[in-house]
Design goal:
Length: 184
Amino acid sequence: MSYPVYLIGYMGAGKTTVGRLLAERLGWHFVDLDEAFHEIHGLSPADYIRTYGIEAFRRKEKYVVEDLAELPIEKVVYATGGGYPCWEDNMECLKELGTSFYLRWHPHHLAERLALTDLSERPLLHGKDAGEILEVIAPQLEARIPYYEQADYIIDAPATLDMPLDGTEDEQLAEMLYAKIVGE
Ligand code: S3P
């Protein structure tokens, strides 16, 4: 398996939380690419999109990922932004740069998880309940799946639809990824 590791998936998939837990477990570095974007450009992705539009954001986001990949540190877990893999040739870039893992969830669970987070930075979802969030995210997730599924590995969230989420899913996902990475 080649380094570094990129976690991809829709908003609410746990890329940041799982990535941090995984990096800790592996003794690797962790970089959240949304945070790196904020540090480099002085605006959060949401504010950047509000100010300059989505196209400008995607172009800058692409450079952030590619520039950081030039750092001479290989043992890094990166949490990508949810839309990054679905722009231009970004998925091919990720596959050349390292190993990608898609954190795959059912949209109902993503909606439930998102409803529990601070949505003030997500204008399209702000003020909505899980059912309304599902209506917004389901078509976008559907359109993104063909990109996400190009990942080197697909890791299915442990939650099943007939069981309620118990809050340990991120730890379980980190453990599943850890086993995969050390087992390769
Ligand atoms: C986006 C997801 C965000 C962030 C930006 C756009 C998207 O990242 O990059 O607001 O298009 O799905 P997270 O998936 O980390 O929330």
